[in-house]
């Protein structure tokens, strides 16, 4: 028994020693799958970001620092489709810096709230409400409101850009409704009191304070929708969380890379034949089963090592390059069983070919 174990361990050591001398085979076995995982994962992650399949980060520059800009930021954050970023490297964003970050491709969108926007919007709302009660529509100069500016990366997909702009339009439309409602709530009692005084005389409105009697409109008057839309997946048995680019590519390429074991196995066989190793082994009291078992165990260990390296790349290296971290799940035993089965399959495939 001990003699058989020594023969098996010697066979395994021989296979590993031959593999370490095959530099090209090692490059194909370890470097090629690693490069494939890096390139494909990063490319797919960039495509998912450009098409809006993953969560996006929007730069938010608030020059107004007032109620309306804060409400817009709050509603954008509450919408759940984007993460609001106000600082970079611990410093407050400026419009120039945010625009440069979008131009460099670090972010897809930047929203800039101009200074004085809240005051201008409220003044314009009062002007519109006042004009609706007035007979003379052209007596007062129109108050101009500065535009809310959105910078976007030219490489961003058109449909994705439209979706983000539509979301911003909905937020701005809701804010505009709130501002107009508050302006109407403030001005209507005054206009009604003035109209009654003109029609009925000052004696009729004496002692009547319509501003106190008329209910005011709250700031959230138009923010709560009357009709909500429920989005559901039409999938049998339900649909779980959408896998990220890392979740899709790292396990797939890790298993695919195991089958590159054919290259070093072929090199090992050629080396054994050219150096006469196989002939010398046949003259020794070693069974073919021991030689075959040592070869299988050695290359299964190599496949498992390669699989572990690829998983570690997804766990630690890809997040440093801007991709999501690989989530291993809650069943490491299942991962080990799949990896071991794939390693035996790849090794058996290699032995069959060579």
Q: What would you note in describing this structure?
A:
The protein has helices at residues 2-21, 23-50, 67-79, 95-103, 117-133, 158-200, 202-205, 210-213, 245-258, 262-275, 277-283, 288-317, 332-353; strands at residues 56-62, 82-85, 87-88, 91-92, 109-113, 149-152. By secondary structure, it is of the alpha/beta class. The protein folds into two domains: 2-46 and 245-353, no CATH class; 55-213, 3-Layer(aba) Sandwich (abc type-2 transporter like fold), CATH 3.40.1710. Strands 2-1-5-6 form a four-stranded mixed β-sheet, sandwiched between helices. Helix 2 runs antiparallel to helix 10 (262-275) and helix 2 (23-50) runs parallel beside helix 12. The two termini are 30 Å apart. The model has no long low-confidence stretch (mean pLDDT 79).
How would you summarize this macromolecular structure in one to three sentences?
The chain contains 13 helices and six strands. Helix 12 (288-317) packs across helix 13 (332-353).
**Uncertain stretches of 5 or more adjacent residues:** none
Return Rg in Å: 35 Å
Please give the order of strands in the largest beta sheet: 2-1-5-6
CATH fold assignment of the largest domain = abc type-2 transporter like fold
Instruction: Report the β-strand fraction as a percent range.
Output: 5-15%
Number of domains: 2
* Structural class by sheet pairing and helices: alpha/beta
Oligomer: single chain
